[in-house]
Amino acid sequence: MELDRLVFTFFNVEIAREYWPDIVKGFVITVQLGLAVIVTGLALGLVLAMLRSLQRRALNLLIVVYADAFRALPALMVIIILFFAFPYAGMPMSAFTATWLALSLVLGAFAEEIFWAGIISIPKGQYEAARSTGMSRLQTLVHVIVPQAVRITIPPLTNRTIAITKGTALGSVVALSEILGAAHSASSLAGNPTPLTLGAIAYLVLFIPFVIFGRWVETRFAWRR
Amino acid sequence: MDVILQQFFNPAIAAKVLPYLMKGFGTTLLLSLLVIPLGLAGGLLVAVLPTLRRRWLSWIVIAYVDFFRAFPPLVLLLFIYFGAPFLGVNLPAIIAVAIGFLLNTSSYYGEIFRAGIESIPRGQWEAARSTGLSWAQTIRHVVVPQATRNVLPDLISNTLEVVKLTTLASVVAIPELLNAARNAQALTYNATPIVLAALIYLVALWPIVRLISRLEHKAVAVR
């Protein structure tokens, strides 16, 4: 009997049938948001790491301050600032934009540090050899340094990217109807936690492949200590 | 410019809400002191179990770790917090936070400790065992101390993430720093409390970020 009650509460078929379209809508938003964050965050990190390798002192200082600040600030704090504080400056933004921008800035900071660690791990001789063949600084960076650096940065980058992309769930705090937001409001409406169970399953379906991929990548591209 | 100053860096409001925010920051620290030891202990257990070399045990551990790393921590927290009453258990928010954080952070700490334990050469195990140390003694006196030293930068880095993660407790109305800031913002109709809270996080956590950067760059330089 107890088990029946548990199933009736957490896996109520009728409620699941009624609310699963909401969860699917949330799923689509989570996927869009996640992809947007990954693309902008990684691109931002890579560009900043490349700029940093130009060794302009003022520019380096700015990049380091940015990377440090966004590694120190909790992601939810950044989302709250963008969503609740910026309207006071006459710059309101949607929940989607605020979450996307916040997570991109955070991922950008971590990615910059990881790419930078990769770039400085490439022996100086590679740089000098490339330059001496007549390549420009940019060509050296694009064709010689970055391709080698990216390879060793893949394991830490993959794990960090997964962790930050999971932060899309934080959007629910500013009322974004991604999976968690949709599941939470549906379960309040239904007076039953089944939509939350559906939401949890949706996250597992979405992220388990990435976690397993991350595990594989870690052994495949392992840093030699 | 004046408007922005008034809305974001209002000195009068900052002075008024600072004591309240510092109290929130105190709660953040207490919360961290609760969840970090829990996560470390859980992670150590998760990492040590596979060294017993029982295949089924290793599979359970991998399933556990991957399962809880796939869940966004906020999903876990809300599931526990809002699900428990339906089981007839009225869970205080702080207990829900402790359980959610234990499940989430023990998976991450577990992966780090595992990497550390795997970095210990087999000879260390064999030497320890051959001197008559039991499995538990070997783990405790030989393997874990060296493993911990090898992965110290990762442990510190993850601990910083856990401290930042305590902001999630604001969602279940635990009055930590972010929660305090949002209450103060709602009361004052002004963004200054939020900006001030961000500054407090920056001042408190920046030294740790610097430390991590230095440790990581040192690790790169050694290779």
What is the CATH topology descriptor of chain B? MetI-like fold
Please give the number of β-strands of chain B.
0
Tell me the CATH superfamily of chain A.
Answer: MetI-like
Domain module tally of chain B:
1
Beta strand % of chain B: under 5%
In terms of per-residue confidence, which ranges of chain B show pLDDT below 50 for 5 or more consecutive residues?
none
- Low-confidence runs of at least 5 consecutive residues of chain A: none
For the report, how would you describe the main beta sheet of chain B?
none
- Average pLDDT of chain A, rounded to a whole number, is 92
Give the topology string of chain B: H per helix, E per strand: HHHHHHHHHH
**Helix percentage range of chain B:** over 70%
Number of domains of chain A: 1
How much of the polypeptide of chain A forms β-strand, as a percent range? under 5%
What is the ordering of alpha helices and beta strands of chain A? HHHHHHHHH
Using the CA coordinates, give the radius of gyration of chain B.
21 Å
CATH architecture of chain A: Orthogonal Bundle
Per DSSP, the total helix count of chain A is 9
